[in-house]
Design a protein that fits this description.
Blueprint lengths: L5 H13 L6 E5 L4 H12 L8 E4 H9 L2 E2 L2 H15 L8 H20 L4 H15 L10 H27 L1 E2 L1 H10 L1 H7 L4 E5 L6 H12 L3 E4 L2 E2 H4 L8 H9 L11 E2 L6 E8 L2 H18 L8 E5 L5 H7 L7 E3 L9 H18 L6 E3 H8 L5 H4 L2 H9 L4 E3 H7 L5 H6 L7 H18 L5 H26 L6 H11 L15 E5 L10 E5 L18 H7 L4 H17 L3 E7 L12 H8 L5 E7 L13 E2 L3 H13 L3 H9 L1 H9 L14 H16 L9 H23 L7 H26 L4 E14 L8 E13 L2 E8 L9 E2 L12 H13 L8 E7 L7 E3 L1 E4 L2 E3 L4 H19 L5 E2 L3
């Protein structure tokens, strides 16, 4: 049996019954999208030229009857606020933000009351009576002003409704419900004015009371016919939600007491292949949908995809799906718009709002900006190439500016571009100047973008969509000047930006069809792939966005969540009705974001399985690779070897050697490629910065004593300088960073404490009779290593924190701000010294000893570490432990053993055949 699509049948009716009066026939469909498909169906069935009937959506039709223009939700909210202010005492008036919180819900209820033609005063006074009953038990003397205002709010509802209704009617504008009510009021006049016209209503399911009344009156006056698309499986089952509405109409409409009900079909029970596929997470569904399409094209390479539809239960899946489609998909038609939510232009505006609203909320007369907000804007891809602010970004990063006054920012950027001035213009003059400034900014960005680049053309489309929204806001604000807070503007902007969709260009009748659930109404496909078949997505689930309680809705005949579920049920089953191959994809994760139980529709299909349905259920899991990550291997090219020779001539530092041991790839990036870390603002002082500050402070304090023995009075004198010197070093190292509060103040105090504790240990040693003579501070030493196995001599070069002579022994000291224990500097075996990063401290201090040995003039040498987090242990010397013997003096034997190990390491580094292998 060949399934004829619903629109093909409607086209046949038009040709058979209305062929003589097609130009006077108006076909009313549930949505605008079906119009193209109906015209195509008509084309297929005629051989000669004909005048097409007028085809419109139900909303446009009702708007034509009422003669009222529809307005969007934001404009409606503004208009309602005008009405609210005009009828509310000044002392009781709320700000727009507070008003908007409850007004949106109230407008929703007004809309439903009107669409279902209920008496507003009856419904709204009913709500007041319910609230009165709730507060019955409270004695008059216990009623607080808050409670009084609460009760007054419910009393005012009829007044709000009537005033808003009259206000909008005077302007010739309205929300959907008002338009429907006025259409019903105007129906008699309308029917008389279109007596020569014939109306054909097709493909409807759920109708509100106003739509029912309009359609029934036109049918009663022989001016209209209605054709339903309902399957007997759903219509004859009194419990099946897909037939809920049509069963009611069949039973209650006067027309059907004496006329046949058209059309009841038997398509759902025909043969169908239903594949239920579960996969973890959302992206998996996009991948599976892509592979299904690939299989379809592989099975029939010459076949078209115009009878294949992918219906997205969650529209956020659109972009992952587009990336998952195979290259063999040529033509593609996407009926949903692409949201402006996450495109670069919208992200830039969101960052701009964040920066300026934060600056305004600081209540600072100097308009202070936070560095992250500033850098987020200056480094944005739509700003960075055009604003000429690379030097400004470098200054902010280098000088650790955390909070920057507006004036300072302007001083730092000496020659500002027009784009820069638009971005950082103060937002202090009210909402309209801000919006005009943003509008100007978007025009500047548009002018910066090229028409030659495909990517920039797409960005331009988004910029234009946002530009239209901003201009719409300018229009609203110029009409309603009393709503003028930037915070309110941002809240409204976040709501309207969702309306800034960019449409996809495509050929609607050709190729693979990708659509949302509502766009699928009236259309039929052979193969249907439905994603996000989870509770909360498909069906959407309960949302109690109303002041009218459930039982009141039931009593008054207003739709409840049951009716909303029934609408979803109809859409779902209609998708399946004439399809032959159906793929239902769902997320197997029942917890977490984007998750939910498997949809009840899948369970219903399994429980109420039709005899001719072939149902399969599979779970797909991602294939995990055996190795999560392949280590990098970089061979040593000629240029790498030249660079290594250059390093050998200029000097290998001990830290370069330990960085190779830690990870050869790290050494390759830092020393061979010379890639340094990106300079960023240090909002909180990093440990290495704190270490630099302590090192530099000790250097300055001890510099006067180089070449001298230190006395007690010298150390006592140093104590007095700690505060001034640490602050001075902070300013030098941390530049403009904030050190007077927060974690940085703690770091400042830690630095002072560390220096003070170090001096206390030094003072104690002198009191105990130690003779300490400073030889060098923060000095660079070097020594060339000649070895028969090395391809060429290698210079070892490094910076030593401190060299002193203590009681006749040379002591080479490396300061560490981190924690170092005695065990870190004890060596038991030379073998494998350079294999493990655990020996990095030993490699470092012995390198210093080797470099200084020639200058020691035969004096005994010790080399070790002073750890500021372990000061109580004092100086931790390198110790070679042989059996029970501990030796801390570095003699020729120790140095020759050390050099043998270092030579092995250098040979590995300089060997052209040993690549740099990443350690993971």
């Amino acid at each position: 049996m060949i399934n004829i699509s619903f629109l093909d049948k409607i086209a046949s009716v038009l040709i058979e019954k209305y062929s003589n009066s097609l130009s006077n026939t108006i076909v009313v469909l549930p949505n605008k999208r079906a119009k193209i498909f109906l015209i195509e169906a008509l084309k297929k069935q005629v051989n000669t030229n004909i005048l097409s009937p007028e085809i419109i959506s139900i909303e446009d039709f009702v708007q034509d009857i009422s003669g009222i223009r529809t307005i969007d939700p934001i404009e409606l909210l503004f208009e309602f606020y005008e009405v609210y202010l005009s009828i509310t005492e000044k002392s009781q008036q709320q700000s727009f933000e507070l008003f908007a919180n409850w007004a949106k819900t109230l407008l929703q209820d007004f809309n439903e009351i009107d669409r279902y033609l209920l008496d507003p005063s009856h419904v709204l006074s009913y709500l007041k009576d319910i609230e009165d009953i709730k507060k019955w038990g409270i004695e008059v003397k216990n009623k607080t002003p808050l409670l009084e205002r609460y009760v007054d709010f419910w009393k005012l509802l009829p007044k709000y409704y009537q005033s808003l209704y009259d206000h909008l009617l005077n302007k010739g504008i309205g929300y959907q419900g008002l338009i429907y009510r006025e259409a019903v009021n105007n129906l008699n006049h309308f029917t008389k004015s279109v007596q020569e016209k014939q109306f054909l209503f097709a493909g409807f399911n759920a109708l509100n009371a106003a739509e029912e009344k309009i359609i029934q009156q036109l049918i009663a006056s022989d001016q209209a016919e209605i054709y339903w698309d309902v399957d007997q499986t759903f219509l004859n089952d009194p419990y099946h939600d897909a037939g809920l509405f049509v069963r009611r109409f069949k039973e209650n409409w006067k027309h059907y007491k004496s006329n046949p009900f058209e059309w009841i079909v038997d398509d759902f029970s025909q043969s169908k292949n239903i594949h239920v596929i579960g996969t973890p997470k959302t992206i998996g569904q996009a991948k599976i949908a892509g592979s299904i399409i690939e299989n379809i094209t592989n099975d029939n390479p010459l076949g078209k995809l115009d009878k294949v539809a992918i219906v997205l239960g969650d529209e956020n899946l659109l972009v992952p799906l587009l990336y998952s489609l195979p290259a063999s998909v040529g033509a593609l038609n996407i009926t949903m718009g692409y949201s402006s939510k996450n495109n670069p232009a919208q992200i830039l505006l969101a960052k701009l709002f964040k920066m300026h609203t934060n600056a305004l909320s600081r209540n600072n007369s100097s308009y202070v900006l936070y560095y992250k907000d500033v850098l987020d804007i200056l480094t944005h891809p739509l700003v960075e190439p055009y604003a000429k602010t690379a030097a400004l970004v470098a200054i902010i990063n280098k000088n650790n500016y955390t909070f920057i006054t507006h004036q300072k920012l302007m001083e730092l950027n000496v020659i500002p571009s027009e784009l820069f001035l638009l971005l950082f213009k103060k937002w202090e003059s009210g909402s309209i100047p801000v919006l005009e400034s943003i509008s100007q900014l978007l025009q500047t960005i548009k002018n910066n973008l090229s028409n030659d680049s495909e990517e920039e053309k797409i960005t331009k489309a988004f910029v234009f969509a946002i530009f239209k929204v901003i201009n719409k806001l300018i229009t609203y604000y110029s009409k309603h000047k009393h709503i003028d807070k930037i915070e309110t503007l941002y809240a409204i902007y976040k709501q309207v930006i969702d309306l800034a969709e960019v449409s996809f260009e495509g050929e609607p009748l050709n190729g693979l069809q990708i659509m949302g659930v509502l766009e699928s109404r009236v259309l039929d496909f052979d193969t249907v792939i439905v994603t996000s078949m989870n509770e909360g997505k498909f069906p959407a689930g309960k949302s109690q966005n109303s002041f009218i309680p459930y039982d009141v809705k039931r009593e008054l005949g207003l739709p409840t969540f049951k009716e909303k579920d029934a609408i979803y049920t109809y859409h779902f089953y209609h998708l399946l009705q004439r399809a032959k191959n159906i793929y239902l994809l769902y997320n197997t994760e029942s917890e977490g974001l984007d998750a939910g139980e498997k949809s009840r529709f899948i369970t219903q299909l399994e429980v109420e399985k039709q005899p001719n349905h072939n149902t399969t259920h599979e779970i797909y899991n991602a294939i995990l690779p055996e190795t999560a990550y392949q280590p990098m291997i970089i061979p040593k090219s000629e240029s790498v070897m030249l660079r290594l020779k250059e390093i050998a001539e200029k000097g290998f530092s001990p830290s370069a050697l330990t960085s190779y041991i830690r990870n050869p790839i790290q050494f390759y990036f830092q020393k061979i490629l010379r890639i340094s870390e990106v300079e960023e603002v240090e909002e909180n002082i990093a440990l290495n910065t704190l270490g630099t500050i302590i090192h530099e402070t000790l250097k300055v304090l001890y510099e006067p004593f180089i070449g001298k023995f230190i006395s007690e009075s010298d150390i006592l004198n140093c104590f007095k300088q700690i505060d001034v010197e640490v602050l001075k070093q902070f300013k030098l190292v941390y530049k403009e960073g904030e050190i007077k509060k927060g974690r940085n103040l703690l770091a400042f105090e830690v630095a002072k404490r560390n220096v003070s504790n170090f001096l206390k240990v030094e003072l104690e040693s002198i009191k105990n009779g130690d003779a300490i003579k400073i030889i060098a501070l923060e000095q660079t030493y070097q020594r060339t290593l000649h070895h028969s196995s090395l391809p060429f001599p290698v210079l070892i070069k490094g910076n030593v924190d401190r060299i002193e002579e203590r009681n006749g022994t040379i002591r080479i000291i490396d300061y560490k701000t981190g924690k170092v224990d005695k065990a870190n500097v004890i060596l038991k075996n030379w073998n494998g010294l350079t294999d493990d990063i655990k020996s990095d401290k030993i490699i470092q201090v012995l390198a210093y000893a080797y470099m200084f040995e020639e200058k020691a003039n035969g004096q005994p040498i010790e080399a070790g570490i002073i750890s500021f987090k372990n000061l109580k242990s004092g100086f931790l010397p390198f110790v070679f432990k042989e059996e029970k013997e501990m030796n801390s003096i570095i003699d020729e034997t120790i140095l020759s053993q050390y050099l043998e190990q270092i030579t092995l390491l250098l040979n590995e580094i300089l060997d052209v055949n040993i690549p740099f292998l990443e350690k993971i």
